[in-house]
Structure formats: structure tokens, C-alpha cells
Design a protein that fits this description.
heterodimer; A: alpha/beta; 5-stranded parallel β-sheet; 3-stranded parallel β-sheet; 39% helix; B: 81 residues; alpha+beta; 16% helix
Chain lengths: 267, 81
């Protein structure tokens, strides 16, 4: 089994198909251990206000940069294209990366993407030389506009952030995969269980981005490993080719030569 | 910008300025964004800054005047999903 099955985004090969968030862990050490156990090649971070005389950011950066993984800053919490663009510019300077996970949030209850602001911000940031990873929905129209804006990857939600509901719209996600066969697609948000992640990979998604399901597990390190296994299994299954489901049963054991076959029929 | 710098009290004669830093009101005698960061004890910290909603690169902080009513954001990296 080929263990090296990287996917490529913006010209960079990523060795793992698991992207892991760094929030909500019981401690920084557990977070670091979970990242290591997951084998994730990319971790997400946010930008938040630094208190006077605070050095929280310096400590966090030292921890993250010690993990030896690519860092993908996000614009979490931004509610307009303008806020997201300013946040992205700050992130680029702070983290020395032109990668940005672009979130423009439309609604507090669902944390669903504001697709209008998202496209606007993506266009501006692509023009500024950013490599934009847009947190979007399975809406094909929005997806086409994001690609036209310069995005080379799309990250549709599985379910609202933090819900753990899994793949809420399988039809929509399958359609998106079929419609954009050559575009790297990542299910981002809503993943609650390794089986959800495996299902996304079986559909042919290139990777999965999750956070809460690992961070809030009783044992985050072990759960990180479980997700890594599930994602690898789902990827292998997709490459191997899943069977077509059928409505009627069909014996897997050959019928020919079944003992008592001639006398076993019920009247 | 030139006028703002005069109002901002580059010469220190205009007294403290009322500004908002990270959402909290405060008074400062800092003439520039760089001086403000030093006053906040963040002169050496790895932070990024914005003034009135617009990104201010690190190299531009010393030349960015602080004006009464400014809304300054000072951010660093944190846990995120």
C-alpha cells in the first residue's frame, strides 16, 4: 500500500490529508501531542488581540513553529470582506505565509459563510498575492466565482462549525466533487467522528479539516490517531473503487454446488 | 497626514490623546504607532497592527501618527480552527 499519497495545493505537496485545528485542547502540550499523533501536515491558527505586556502570542508561536508543520492562519470571526482582508494582511506579516483560510461569517447561529463577502475578499486577496483557502458551502455558483477570483482550492462545510453533525448534504458534496474533478476539495467543519471523515474521503475529497472532534475528545491524542486512520482508509477505498450499491441481495458465496440445494426449497 | 501629525502632538505639547486599543478606551502620549506599542510593552513582541481598520505593516509603524479617536488593533497568533 503506498503510504506516500500526497496532495498538491498551490504547488506545495502536502503529505497528510488531515488538516487539524489548534483550538480547544485541554492544554498546549496535548495540542502538540495530538498534532504529532495525527500526522497532520497543516495546522490552522487564528489572530486575536494581544493584551498590553502580554506575551501569549510569542509563546503560542514558539509552540506552533516547533511542530514542524505548515501553518494556515484563518480569518475566523470576520463578518465582512474588509475585516477579513485586514486580518489576512496582518496574518501574512505575523506568520510569514501567503496562505490564508478565508472565513467571512454570515450568521452567528450557523456560522455559515457569507458567500458574497467571501467572493469579494477572495478576489481582493488573490490580487494581493495571497493563496486563498476559502471556507465555503457546497454552492456551485459560489464555487465557480471563487475559482474565477483566483482560488485554487475549495473548502466546503460538512456541517456548521463545531456541531459534529458530519456530512449534512451528501448530495451537494458529491455533486461538487463530480463538478470540479480537478480542483483540490477539502471538507472543512462539522466533522464529528472518524466515520464522517472517512465518508468524505470515500467520496473523493482530497482532505479533511477538523478541530473540535479531536480537541474535545476524552483522549485527543488517541482521537487524532483515529482520524488519521479513518482518512487513510477512506482515501484508499476511493482509489480502490467502491462497489455499486444494489437493492436486491446477491449471494457472495457461489450458489452452484450448494448441498441439499435440490431438496431445500420451501413449499 | 501632515496635519494629523501636528494634531497628534508629535511635539508632545498637545497632551494625552484619547484612543481605543483593542476595543478598550485609553489615553496615550505616544506620537506614533511604534511608540504606542512600546508604551503597551509590546515593542518587541511578535504582533501585527491595524489603524482604523487598515493594516499597518511593521515597517510603517514609526511613521504612522496616532490621532485622537484612533481605533488601534494589536493582534498575535492564537489557537484556531
Amino acid at each position: 500500500m503506498p503510504d506516500a499519497d500526497p496532495f498538491s495545493v498551490y504547488g506545495t505537496e502536502i503529505g497528510s490529508r488531515l488538516l487539524l485545528g489548534t483550538a480547544q485542547y485541554p492544554s498546549p502540550q496535548v495540542m502538540a501531542d495530538a498534532v504529532a499523533a495525527s500526522g497532520a501536515g497543516i495546522v490552522t491558527v487564528s489572530l486575536r488581540r494581544e493584551a498590553a505586556r502580554g506575551r501569549v502570542g510569542d509563546r503560542f508561536l514558539a509552540l506552533i513553529e516547533g511542530l514542524g508543520v505548515k501553518v494556515l492562519p484563518n480569518t475566523a470571526g470576520c463578518r465582512s470582506a474588509k475585516e477579513a482582508v485586514t486580518t489576512a494582511l496582518m496574518a501574512r506579516e505575523l506568520l510569514s505565509t501567503d496562505w490564508i483560510k478565508l472565513e467571512v461569517i454570515a450568521n452567528d447561529d450557523t456560522l455559515q459563510p457569507d458567500l458574497f463577502g467571501l467572493v469579494e475578499a477572495a478576489r481582493t486577496l488573490a490580487g494581493e498575492g495571497f493563496k486563498v483557502f476559502p471556507y465555503t458551502t457546497e454552492d456551485l455558483g459560489a464555487a465557480e466565482r471563487l475559482l474565477a477570483a483566483g482560488c485554487e482550492i475549495l473548502m466546503p462545510w460538512g456541517a456548521p462549525i463545531g456541531t459534529g453533525l458530519g456530512l449534512n448534504n451528501r448530495y451537494g458534496l458529491e455533486t461538487m466533487r463530480a463538478y470540479f474533478p480537478g480542483v483540490p476539495l477539502v471538507v472543512d467543519a462539522g466533522i464529528g467522528a472518524p466515520s464522517h471523515a472517512a465518508a468524505a474521503m470515500e467520496m473523493g475529497y482530497d482532505a479533511v479539516l477538523l478541530n473540535t472532534a479531536v480537541a474535545k475528545a476524552r483522549d485527543p491524542v488517541r482521537m487524532a490517531r483515529a482520524f488519521a486512520d479513518a482518512i487513510r482508509a477512506g482515501r484508499e477505498a476511493y482509489i480502490a473503487g467502491l462497489m455499486e450499491p444494489r437493492d436486491m441481495a446477491e449471494p457472495s458465496t457461489p450458489v452452484a454446488g450448494t448441498p441439499f440445494f435440490d431438496i431445500g426449497a420451501k413449499s | 497626514m501632515g496635519v494629523q501629525q501636528v494634531i497628534g502632538g508629535v511635539d508632545g505639547a498637545a497632551g494625552p490623546l484619547a484612543i481605543v486599543v483593542n476595543g478598550a478606551p485609553m489615553e496615550t502620549t505616544a506620537a506614533s504607532l511604534f511608540e504606542l506599542l512600546c508604551e503597551l510593552g509590546l515593542g518587541e513582541a511578535r504582533v501585527a497592527t491595524a489603524r482604523n481598520g487598515a493594516f499597518v505593516p511593521a515597517a510603517a509603524r514609526a511613521g504612522t501618527a496616532i490621532v485622537a479617536g484612533d481605533r488601534i488593533e494589536v493582534v498575535s497568533a492564537r489557537q484556531g480552527g
